[in-house]
UniProtKB/TrEMBL annotation, chain A:
Membrane topology designation: Multi-pass membrane protein
NCBIfam families named among the record's database cross-references: urea_trans_UrtB (TIGR03409)
This protein's name: Branched-chain amino acid ABC transporter permease
InterPro entries from the UniProt entry: ABC_transp_permease, ABC_UrtB_bac, ARM-like, ARM-type_fold, BCAA_transport_permease
Source lineage: Bacteria, Pseudomonadati, Myxococcota, Myxococcia, Myxococcales
The organism of origin for this protein: Anaeromyxobacter paludicola
Transmembrane portions of the chain: 235-257, 269-288, 294-314, 375-395, 462-486, 492-511
TrEMBL record, chain B:
Regions crossing the membrane: 20-41, 53-77, 83-101, 136-159, 166-184, 214-235, 265-282, 302-326, 338-355
Keyword Ribonucleoprotein among record annotations: no
Cell compartments where the protein resides: Cell membrane
Keywords, comma-separated and alphabetical: Cell membrane, Membrane, Transmembrane, Transmembrane helix
Membrane topology annotation: Multi-pass membrane protein
Predominant cellular place of this UniProt entry's protein: membrane
InterPro entries recorded: ABC_transp_permease, ABC_transptr_urea_perm_UrtC, LivM-like
This protein's name: Branched-chain amino acid ABC transporter permease
CDD domains from the UniProt entry: TM_PBP1_LivM_like
Length: 528, 372
């Protein structure tokens, strides 16, 4: 809680607080000359767990406390209150001196206020207070923290409190107390604990050999847990990048792999899917504001159809005439991509548009303290697996897939036995484009949506197809996930740009060794 | 490959006809005599005056034309579509740009011996690869050797592994993309995303002076003519015929006892070297080189210049580069938002309706007239 909101909150409590009375001795200590005395007063007030104490401490922090003849007064705007009873003193006594505090006391007051806020009924206030205390709590607060820890039920607040408590007890002069604190930290997965224990093990920081040994053991346990968390986080972000690549590459695996069309406008089909999501967001905001969270679900078929329609038009008007000339389809579809991205720029503007995550996709699943799996990425991974399953079913279990495979293997023969090859080409291309549109829906949830977004993915998705081997769905899957995880791992130790360069170099070298990709079609054939 | 669909235009790769020599002569006369005279000798207001802008634009377009001819050599005659020729062009530009940066001397913003961007990065000494670049001759050698070497190494492995067609195109695209990302980094030592600019002089002459500009223009024209003649001679030679044979049937050529990858590698490396020359001529005229020259989009645009003019004709590459770039400089002023649409429709239209480009169209019309 920020000081201002804290003050407002305390003002609301003021009428109730006026009736309660604080320990007069503790309050009187605040007015003492001696700093140690003041510190003791602050700690006593902090232990009282009384909202009125919070008010007095807040006033101390804001330099609104005065002392007159040993009586501590609280300035509240125009009025002057007695700090013990919070009753108004009228007229204000003559010769009141402001109570000044040094920085050490000011820090102390800050943690004391945080400890008081730990009894706040509002979960967010407690979380904020616990976070503040986890950065450094003094030994004097240990009893207050212990009490709060015993009462606390919240899954997010509790580990922070435990950390703060352990930190406070670590300052205890008793080796036994420190030992139990160090042991309590063993189950933590918080990066701060690693720093704390590291500091404890520094030369001259901790002298007791038992505590040192336990601290070392705890540090190793924490480090191990942190490393696991980082590993999980990295694998997961690699998988989610891979599943985006997979959605982009699945479409290409059909259009390029099966039909031999180099579709450089594929990235723009992705863009169409993303803009369709944006449009659905607008439609839902206007017409169904109460069901706004479901716009993503509605966007899935819309994006599929929109991108599929553009794909069908593209096939009928341009690609149809260029079958068997892959290098020329490359140029023509590059032209189409320029036209499409300019069309998007004219329609939606050159700026990126914002697509918000629906509420059920925001947040994440905390795995350990430093690895949170965001829901939007979990949904995307699941979504791409679902699309992959549907594509596999369509290719292997439907008449359309049978025809498509037949045309791929022998166009003339398929035509002779009655497969409508021309219409099939259009349908297959539209399906590939539609899958790219689905990729766009997924992409809109984690990346910027703008007219240039297609260009950023086209090279990557071609890499996936080339790496996986032409005409192979399984190849595309392994290549996409592998590239995703590989680039995230490289990013971890070398930065994004070098990682990208390394991946491109890796692919260039890989192609030298396996020119047909990971999953080459086996059999005897000769080109030309 | 598309060669199955129609007879290759390289049937015309006979020794240059008299009309060709006449056109080349006219071009050289115009570029080496007429333009310099009209630029330097006529007053600025005169109707005959060729403006600074026109000379720079002409020089720039001729640099592009050299790149287009170089691409036509490997694409039109070797069947290798490179989507990474922008890389070789930019490498040439950076090579000579290093000399131009050194020639600024202490006249930069920070008045240091180091180029401004290095001072800005707080570097104390030049990186090793900048050594010797204060000599224009070494920088020029770099501008030619570096693209050539990159192409040689890349091509050696790619052709040996028999990577061809679309695969080759895509990995050249990956190559230029990787290089662009590398050059965008400040740590690479080439000025990051700002690249090289603010040049002051070349070989001791102020770079913006009319005489320098005209000299560079004439040099570029000569280089273009030389490139055309060299490539013409190559494709008409025995080597060129084998290269064309490999394009049309690589396995057959191999079974006949030729080594396709030797032939391809030579054409590929030569093409990269020519691009390096074009880049080195481009930088002093345009006054800037930055990593966006290596973007995949730029390299694909080079392919469309060749396609518009006509693949496998050499002169078509010049025509295409000139027309597309002149259209671009007009469009980006008059209708900036429609340039991309126009370019896109041009890509589609040319591949659908003009598979042999403008030169092919012209030749078809001429043949029809001759028959009638």
């Amino acid at each position: 809680m920020r000081p201002l909101t804290a003050a407002l909150f305390l003002l609301l409590l003021a009428p109730a607080a006026a009736r309660a009375a604080l320990d007069p001795q503790a309050v009187a200590k605040l007015g003492a000359e001696d700093s140690e005395e003041k510190l003791a007063g602050v700690d006593e007030l902090a232990r009282s767990a009384d909202p009125a104490a919070a008010r007095v401490l807040q006033a101390l922090a804001e330099d609104n406390l005065q002392v007159a003849n040993g009586r501590v007064l609280l300035l509240d705007g125009e009025r002057t209150l007695d700090a013990t009873t919070l009753a108004e003193v009228d007229p204000a006594p003559e010769g009141a001196e402001p109570i000044t505090i040094n920085n050490r006391i000011r820090r102390h007051v800050g943690t004391a206020l945080a400890a008081l806020r730990l009894s706040d009924p509002d979960r967010r206030a407690r979380l904020a207070a616990a976070q503040e205390l986890a950065d450094g709590a003094s030994l004097e607060l240990a009893p207050a923290l212990k009490a709060a820890l015993d009462r606390e039920q919240d899954r997010e607040v509790k580990p922070l409190l435990a950390l703060a408590y352990a930190q406070a007890t670590l300052q205890s002069p008793e080796p036994a107390a420190r030992l139990s604190a160090v042991k309590a930290l063993r189950d933590s997965g918080n990066p701060r604990v690693e720093r704390l224990l590291g500091g404890l093990l520094a030369d001259g920081a901790e002298t007791d050999p038992d505590v040192r040994r336990e601290a070392l053991a705890s540090l190793e346990a924490v480090r191990h847990r942190l490393a696991m968390g980082e590993l999980v986080g990295r694998v997961f972000s690699g998988l989610s990048l891979g599943s985006i690549l997979l959605l982009a590459a699945l479409g290409l695996a059909i259009t390029y792999g099966l039909m031999g069309v180099i579709n450089m406008a594929h990235g723009e089909l992705l863009m169409i899917g993303a803009y369709a999501t944006y449009a659905m967001q607008g439609v839902f905001a206007r017409h169904f504001p109460r069901h706004h969270d479901w716009y993503v679900v509605a966007a899935v078929p819309v994006a599929f159809l929109a991108a599929g329609l553009v794909g069908a038009v593209l096939e009928r008007t341009v690609i149809r005439f260029l079958y068997g000339r892959p290098l020329e389809t490359l140029l023509a579809t590059w032209g189409a991509s320029l036209v499409l991205s300019q069309a998007a720029r004219s329609t939606f503007g050159a700026q990126n548009v914002s697509v918000a995550n629906p509420s059920w996709m925001s947040g994440g699943v905390p795995l350990v303290a430093n690895a949170v799996l965001p829901w939007n990425r979990i949904v995307i991974v699941a979504f791409s697996l679902a699309v992959l399953g549907l594509v596999w079913l369509a290719m292997n279990r439907t008449r359309f897939g049978l025809f498509l495979r037949a045309v791929t293997q022998n166009r003339a023969m398929a035509g002779c036995v009655g497969v409508p090859t021309g219409r099939l080409d259009t349908l297959a291309f539209a399906a590939g484009a539609g899958i790219a549109g689905l990729g766009g829906v997924a992409l809109s949830q984690i990346a910027n949506v703008g007219p240039d977004m297609g260009q950023a993915y086209i090279v990557d998705s071609f890499m996936v197809v080339v790496l996986g081997g032409v005409g192979q769905l399984a190849g595309a899957v392994w290549a996409a996930l592998g590239l995703g995880v590989l680039s995230k791992f490289l990013e971890g130790w070398s930065g994004a740009v070098i990682a990208k360069i390394a991946v491109l170099a890796f692919i260039i070298v890989f192609i030298q060794k396996r020119p047909q990709g990971l999953f080459a079609l086996k059999g005897r054939f000769a080109e030309d | 490959m598309d060669a199955v669909a129609r007879p290759p235009l390289s049937r015309w790769t006979v020794p240059m006809p008299p009309a060709g020599w006449a056109a080349l002569g006219a071009f050289l006369a115009g570029a080496l005599l007429l333009v310099p005279a009209l630029h330097l000798l006529t007053p600025a207001g005169s109707a005959l005056h060729v403006s600074d802008y026109a000379v720079t634009l002409g020089g720039k377009v001729m640099c592009y034309a050299i790149v287009a001819v170089a691409l036509d050599l490997v694409w039109g005659y070797g069947g290798i579509l490179s989507l990474g020729h922008g890389l070789f062009f930019a490498l040439g530009g950076y090579g000579f740009g290093m000399y131009l940066m050194r020639a600024i001397g202490r006249e930069g913003v920070y008045q240091s011996d180091l180029p401004d961007f290095m001072v800005f990065l707080d570097w104390k000494a030049l990186p090793w690869y900048w050594r010797g670049t204060e000599h224009a001759a070494w920088a020029l050698a770099l501008a030619v050797l570096v693209p050539g070497l990159v192409a040689l190494v890349f091509g050696f492995f790619a052709f040996r592994s028999r990577i061809k067609g679309v695969y080759f195109s895509i990995i050249t695209q990956a190559l230029t993309l990787a290089a662009m990302l590398l050059f965008f980094r400040n740590e690479t030592g080439f000025g990051g995303n700002n690249g090289f600019t603010d040049f002051k002089r070349v070989l001791g002459h102020p770079i913006a002076a009319p005489a320098t500009r005209v000299a560079l223009f004439m040099l570029t024209a000569a280089a273009l003519a030389g490139t055309l003649l060299l490539c013409r001679w190559l494709v008409a030679s025995r080597y060129g015929r084998v290269l064309t044979a490999i394009r049309d049937g690589e396995s057959r050529a191999r079974f006949l006892g030729y080594q396709p990858h030797h032939y391809k590698l030579f054409a590929w490396t030569l093409s990269a070297v020519l691009c390096g020359v074009a880049g080195a001529l481009y930088v002093p005229q345009v006054g800037i080189i930055n990593p966006s020259e290596m973007s995949p989009a730029n390299s694909i645009e080079i392919a469309i210049w060749v396609a518009v003019g006509g693949r496998g004709t050499l002169v078509g590459a010049v025509v295409g580069a000139a027309l597309v770039n002149l259209a671009k400089s007009w469009f980006t002023v008059a209708f900036p938002e429609f340039w991309n649409v126009f370019l896109g429709l041009l890509f589609i239209g040319v591949t659908l309706f003009l598979p042999d480009g403008l030169v092919g169209l012209f030749r078809r019309l001429a043949a029809r007239k001759a028959r009638a």
